[in-house]
Amino acid sequence: MMNYATQLTLGIRLQEDATFENFLIGRNAQLMTHLKQFLQNEDHFFYIGGVLGSGRSHLLQACCHEMTQLKQSALYLPLSNYQEFHPGLLENLETISLVCVDDIQCISQEAVWQESLMHLYNRSRAAQTKLIVSGDVPPSELALSLADLKSRLSWGWMYQLHLLADEDKVMALQTRAKERGFELSQEVGNFLLRRCARQMSDLFLVLEKLDEASLSAQRRLTIPFVKTVLNL
């Protein structure tokens, strides 16, 4: 099961909707197939690259949820918040079936963190547990000061996430709207893409705001209503 004690001690909660089922695949079918295979085979390491908003964090958390379903322990560690932690927390994590380390580019100037992560890599490989790391660029392009760590990140599966096309983003918004119990028309979806921030995390926040406003005003989501709510 999930290593809840460690996860909660870090003050990190997995998003409940960050699952494989809720990930819109787009042009990432091959990555998804191999990532699911990785979780069930004996391979040790998987690297996922992708720009901000491509879905890296969603996939890493989905892997943790999936391991829970497989009755295995898992831990998600976002290095975007590394200042809140101590690199010593990486000690003994090789005892966890899967450790997912997100946003490795954030420690590009942190030598102690890089060394601690390299040691975790070595220990988890020896223990035959799994490690997934994500970054905004491929391993060869990371500005890491520790060459040994940079080298190790190239040992294993490596995939680059493709951004969603606009039609896929609208479909993702419509799926999320349906999960929340309301309909989002193609027209309104296209309007949101033209007038709002285009990262899916930002668009989902906009959708949440529109849902709350729609419920409060008992109004359907039309373009005039959306303009009023978002002050556009």
Describe the protein in words.
It is a single chain. The protein is of the alpha/beta class and 232 residues long. The chain has two domains: 4-160, 3-Layer(aba) Sandwich (Rossmann fold); 166-230, Helicase, Ruva Protein, domain 3, CATH 1.10.8. It has helices at 4-9, 29-40, 56-69, 111-127, 147-152, 166-179, 186-195, 200-217, 223-230, and strands at residues 45-49, 74-78, 98-102, 130-135, 157-160. The protein has a five-stranded parallel β-sheet, sandwiched between helices. Helix 4 links the parallel strand 3 and strand 4. The model has no long low-confidence stretch (mean pLDDT 90).
Spell out the blueprint of helices and strands.
Elements: H1 4-9, H2 29-40, E1 45-49, H3 56-69, E2 74-78, E3 98-102, H4 111-127, E4 130-135, H5 147-152, E5 157-160, H6 166-179, H7 186-195, H8 200-217, H9 223-230
Parallel strand pairs: 1-4, 1-5, 2-3, 3-4
Q: Looking at CATH, which topology of the largest domain would you report?
A: Rossmann fold
Question: CATH superfamily name of the largest domain?
Answer: P-loop containing nucleotide triphosphate hydrolases
Reported CATH architecture of the largest domain: 3-Layer(aba) Sandwich
Helix tally equals 9
Give the structural class: alpha/beta
How many β-strand stretches?
Answer: 5
Largest sheet: 5 strands, parallel
Strand content: 5-15%
Helix content: 40-55%
Strands in their spatial order, largest beta sheet: 2-3-4-1-5
Write down the overall mean pLDDT: 90
- Gap between N and C termini, in Å? 46 Å
Outline the low-pLDDT stretches: none
Instruction: Give the radius of gyration.
Output: 19 Å
CATH class of the largest domain: Alpha Beta
What pattern of helices and strands is seen along the backbone? HHEHEEHEHEHHHH
Shape: elongated
Structurally, how many domains make up the residues?
2
